[in-house]
Design brief:
Radius of gyration: 33 Å
Number of strands: 7
Shape: elongated
Structural class: alpha/beta
């Protein structure tokens, strides 16, 4: 696991922020879940499948974040997968993760029922579940923070191409699975969020321009002027500037991102000025070389004309001497006669 993954998981594992992520992205800001009612769960999920020949195969996956939400009589499993790059098979990946979550729940119930022996018949015994047993719903969100707008399929039917005419008759019989995508840099409703997610998602809209980014950070200086280390590291990941931003610790022990970005912006300005100077010098050398070549060709034509060479012979010599095409040689000869540029 890379540092970027660790930074993002730590940042989003804050219970208040995680609840806000779910509420703001899925429920338009309605306070369905609260941080106080969330409990972090183990991230490992797996199931053992037995082949017809009796051989067992273990299918195991690790979630980025799993929280159990308990609110009076309602229990919901909330999960988050972080993505820096677009994953074009995400509907299948998400479906597998959710299926493993449900398989884990079934296995837990089976263990309980095998201990209390409360089966009321052969069907319950074979299932390992009582007829009245229920599973907890699983809600998974895909938190994508890459710069490019997400262009992958967001549901299984799209990945299967079920809208094609030849598949229409089958569509109603093929179960669909839709991912809950949060494209952090392209959200239109930041006001749905009540924690610092609102400010951070607004910042991501400006990340393609250092000038706009600096202006946004300065405008929201109250937040960016004193952020904690976890938030600072997460912002560096989302800005893809992990190695560029300079830390600027303030007197209160927090980090002043305004200062850090100002230094980064000024570095960019200085580098831009230096690059422009170098490019200007190189352009001048190229233009000088081209001008000297033009003058040399004109002198070459004039000398051979004075010596009485035919135009055809002069053009032939131009092609061999200056590595130009016969058409270019003809243009140079005509231009020299008329006094115009070739």
């Amino acid at each position: 696991m890379g540092k970027s993954d660790v930074y993002m998981k730590r940042w989003l594992s804050n219970k208040q922020r995680f609840a806000d992520l779910i509420n703001g992205s899925l429920f338009q800001g309605r306070q369905i879940f609260t941080g106080e009612n969330l409990k972090a769960e183990g991230k490992e999920q797996g199931v053992v499948i037995r082949n017809p020949d009796g051989k067992e195969i273990a299918v195991q996956r690790y979630r980025d974040i799993i929280m159990m939400a308990k609110d009076h009589t309602r229990i919901v499993v909330l999960a988050c997968e972080n993505q820096e790059e677009i994953h074009y098979a995400m509907p299948v990946r998400g479906m597998l993760y959710d299926a493993l979550s449900y398989a884990d729940q079934v296995n837990q119930i089976k263990k309980t029922r095998s201990k209390d022996k409360t089966f009321a018949g052969a069907a319950e015994f074979l299932s390992g579940l009582n007829q009245t047993d229920l599973l907890f719903p699983v809600i998974t969100v895909i938190f994508y923070y890459g710069e490019k707008e997400w262009d992958g399929k967001q549901e299984l039917h799209g990945l299967l191409g079920m809208d094609r005419e030849e598949y229409q008759i089958l569509k109603q019989y093929v179960p669909n699975y839709k991912i809950n995508l949060i494209d952090a840099g392209n959200l239109d409703e930041q006001m749905c969020f009540q924690t610092d997610l609102q400010i951070v998602f607004g910042m991501l809209k400006c990340r393609k321009s250092k000038k706009e980014l600096l202006e946004y950070v300065v405008k929201n200086q109250e937040y960016f002027g004193n952020i904690d280390e976890e938030s600072y590291n997460a912002l560096r990941v989302m800005l893809r500037s992990e190695l560029s931003l300079k830390e600027a610790e303030n007197k209160t022990g927090g980090i002043d991102m305004c200062k850090a970005l100002d230094d980064l912006y000024q570095d960019g300005v200085n580098k831009g000025v230096e690059l422009g100077r170098e490019q200007g010098m190189e352009l001048g050398r190229e233009q000088g070389t081209e001008l000297g070549r033009e003058q040399g060709i004109k002198a070459f034509i004039l000398d051979y004309r004075e010596e009485g060479y035919s135009e055809e012979k002069i053009r032939s010599k131009l092609v061999r001497r200056f590595f130009i095409t016969p058409e270019q040689a003809q243009d140079y000869c005509k231009a020299d006669l008329t006094g115009t540029a070739p």
